Amino acid sequence: MSEIRDKNLAASGERKILWASSHMPVLSSIHEDFKREKPFDGLRVALSVHMEAKTAYLATVMKDGGAEVFATGCNPLSTQDDVAAALAARGVQVFAWRGESEEEYDRHLSKVLEGGPQIIIDDGGDLIMRMHTIYRDLIPGVIGGCEETTTGIHRLKAMDAAGELKIPMMLVNNAQCKFLFDNRYGTGQSVWNGINRTTNLIVAGKKVVVAGYGWCGKGVAMRAKGLGARVYVTEIDPIKAIEAIMDGFEVLPMKEAAEIGDFFVTVTGCRDVITPEHMLLMKDGAIVCNAGHFNVEIDMEGLEKIATKVELRRDSIMGYELPNGRSINVLAEGRLVNLAAGDGHPAEIMDMSFSIQALCARFLADHKGEELPMLNYVPAEIDREVAERKLRFLGVSFDHLTKEQQEYIDSWNF
Ligand code: NAD
Ligand code: SAH
Q1: Which of 3, 135, 254, 395 has the most CB atoms around its CB within 10 Å?
Q2: Which CATH architecture has domain 7-174+345-394?
Q3: Residues 60, 7, 348, CA angle at the centre, nearest 5°?
């Protein structure tokens, strides 16, 4: 039995899923394949990904491929209740609502695992962690899992290095058709969409500080520049810092950037990137948000401790008065602003990410009973298949090597 906020919201959620899926041609073509081939016949799938329209379509594709699907979110603030209701009406067991307490969030993770999954689709590593702690006895039944995001991959690698990872995992985030587009262009657009619709303030002429110049940071900085902002970058990696400089941005430590910024966006995957020490240096009215990792990049606990007054200023904007007489605004409780205060990445982007997910899940089903390594990079053929299908649906042709060119590239004695 699903646990959702209100099943009467299903009609609105169904419209959102149909709109999204009609802009996801690659996943739709895989959907057709799966309906015919039923690669997941008799398999149970546990899924923990932001519970919104594109994810609901992925769950539908898995279900129509023969799986029994148990789905929850991967962030207590990103579930859209109407989508959860529509997905439940589509026959998926859904355990999620927007604004879950920590206990409810954990209970919902447990609910999808208690189905006894053979395949796990995770985003951020919470399901896998739980499987390895509370549900260890279910591990022998699992064929493998797929991990959606950078932070989840870091956690898996740390588990593997400690000899603790017992489930073969597909590193979906590290597929080129994932991180090159989702992390960069997806985050670049959806973060500004989240900030703009939450604050309704102008970006042109403002100073934007982007913490972290990885794939997400590059996208967020690029789009801030496109909106007319002056962009500042903080980094801990000297090579990324040079990349940011060569892309035309100023690089400086957060202690200096704190005094300059009008908007701050953290996308590092690290903790305590913005601390009370930085907040006390910020301009009155500065807007601070996170698009990286859970709610740890901005030290929210530290902020609560120093704040002299806290007030809701607009939906998803909390104002904090500071002891120095200034105040700052934190969006979406310091959680991913693009998903907690927006619809996340656009459908055309999730089309590629979730096509990789679907094909990796099929790869696991096809390798049932075989011994796989614990960490599996996505096979190049899957990446290429998704890219080729995407180009086909975009109506774009591209060149292919001639036999002579291939021979030349493969030779050394010229
Ligand atoms: P990445 O590894 O490519 O980039 C992270 C960058 O942050 C690196 O360049 C690193 O040197 C830098 N960094 C680390 N700690 C720092 C610190 N304390 N101060 C300044 N810079 C620091 O990772 P990515 O793919 O860009 O992902 C970043 C985070 O965003 C991850 O947590 C990932 O899971 C998440 N993510 C979010 C979304 C979204 O929709 N909001 C999408 C994709 C990824
Ligand atoms: N679960 C953690 C980890 C970050 S989630 C957290 O909530 O803090 C980041 C992932 O969200 C990205 O890798 C991206 O693929 C995914 N994402 C972005 N937009 C999405 C959308 N519209 N629907 C589903 N997932 C989305």
Answers
A1: 254
A2: 3-Layer(aba) Sandwich (3.40)
A3: 35
